[in-house]
What we know:
Elements: E1 8-13, E2 24-29, H1 32-51, H2 69-73, H3 76-80
Antiparallel strand pairs: 1-2
Amino acid sequence: MQAWKTSTIITSFKSGDASMPTNYRGIAISNALHKVLTKILNKRLMKFMIEHKKWNEYQNVFMEKKVTSKLCACPSSNYLNV
């Protein structure tokens, strides 16, 4: 289980001066099985939350094909009292 919680970080050169650390991007290499199981679990949890109406209409951040722009227009009291 501990192996699933760790990632190997490799650096990828972007462009510019190779001696500058800011010209490198860090890429995390994670366990593939962990990624698959996490995605499955996430889909099941989202389905449960939606079917059982445990999802507030203002919690669109983690929803597929939803936008968060309408959150800017609504009063903060609507989405803070979840």
